[in-house]
Amino acid sequence: MHDKRMLSFGSSLLPIIAMLTLLIVGYGVMGLRIEPLLLCSAAVTAVLAYWQGYNWDEMIHAIVNKLAKAMPVMMILICVGGLIGTWMFSGTIPYMVYWGLKLINPQYILIAAFLITSLISVCTGTSWGSAGTVGVALMGVASGLDVPIAAAAGAVVSGAYFGDKISPLSDSTNFAAIVSDTTLYVHIRHLMYTTIPSFLLAGVVYLIAGHSGLMGEVATPARVIEIITALESLYHFNVVLLLPPALVLWGAIAKKPVIPLMLSACLLAIVLGVALQGLNIRQGLDAFMDGFHLSMFNAQGVTTDGIMADVPRLLNRGGLFSMMSTILLVFCAFSFAGILSLTGALEVIINRLLTIVHSTGQLIAATIGTTILVTGATSDGKLALLIPAELFKGAYLRMGLDTKNLARTIEDAGTVIEPLIPWTAAGVYMASTLGVSTLELLPWAIQCYAAIFFALIYGFTGFGIAKVTPSTEPAVETLSGNEEFTQ
């Protein structure tokens, strides 16, 4: 770094301001595609890096490092496409939708979606697994019942991230405890101060929404019966169709490698589709690659001409290729994040922020703001926990605050906020898997953002804030060079 120009606070803000302006105006107001906006943000940041003295090879190296870390995430995204396509092929998802339509009252679909995904995510510790299995089925039920899918998606995301936040099996829960120098179960108990009120608030809203006019006109019983009849005419339903999701959930609990587990579930689904539905292996591989299509039944002599339009909309989806646009978005986001990490702009901004913090409420607010900023700027959920923890740990000890307050706050503003930012890996995954844009589901993902308000209230009132003997450590800690951003 000795031969590179250091950024001032003002120049450090330039890439962040450029990104936020482009995304808010371009994406939020004008409805432009998000990928070129992220590339424009990356271009602005590249100019700044060039001014600092970095050359093109160094910028590419920083981007490649980011993408290398994101490669497992992208492979999982691709596998999810194959999972959905093969589960449609086997009848697994239609089977879950079938029973959902028969058993769930439209008035209770939101609260049911929230509670079911919450239970699955707590048991498995994975938000992606619960959303990609039962979440997809619940979206099909909501579509069949004419419930607004944005509301249903918000309920699914809320439930999925409830478990991701507090489950002892969750990697983010364990990671937040480690980087904040606290223990896992102390961290989980302290999380209850903000998580339980958020959970109850979300549950009440979903319950009220289902019994009010907020949901609009739900499907008539005749329409639901028509969908059920159509599914019965297409598939041979059997309880063994639940084996693929059972395999995935078992693997998540047992902490088996995700990608081999998902591919195994795809293979099992193809076998079930051939054995139970009378389809062939070629069609199974087509469903895996290109997605399932209702016309596959025509080869078996099953006519699909008279099927109501809602059924093809439910079934025709999935496939590896369906995730390619999602992967492109991840590439664009990490191009920006990679060059930004090279400049060290985030380090400058955060260290300036630390100099104006003088109270517990301000410290909690600064931690929340920083965590959200790092999440949006780096598109990396782990960095969003690591960087604020490293930078703020000394400030918490200096002010006599237990570091479990820090662990709770970075989870409140990082883990559960990541799926609400459209260009992060979690945001892309949830939008792609559930078929609803991030901005549409965001207002309904109450569990995810409500904790921030409780965290701020506690910070400024002192309620739920754990104290320790003040430390003599300096209030401001800095990262040496750019190690955390470029490794």
Automatic annotation (TrEMBL):
Residues 159-463 form the Na+/H+ antiporter NhaC-like C-terminal domain. It comes from Limnobaculum parvum. It is a multi-pass membrane protein. The gene is nhaC. The chain crosses the membrane at residues 6-29, 36-53, 73-96, 108-128, 134-162, 191-214, 234-254, 261-279, 320-346, 353-374, 444-466. This is Na+/H+ antiporter NhaC. The keyword Chloroplast does not apply. GO terms for cellular component: plasma membrane. It is found in: Cell membrane.
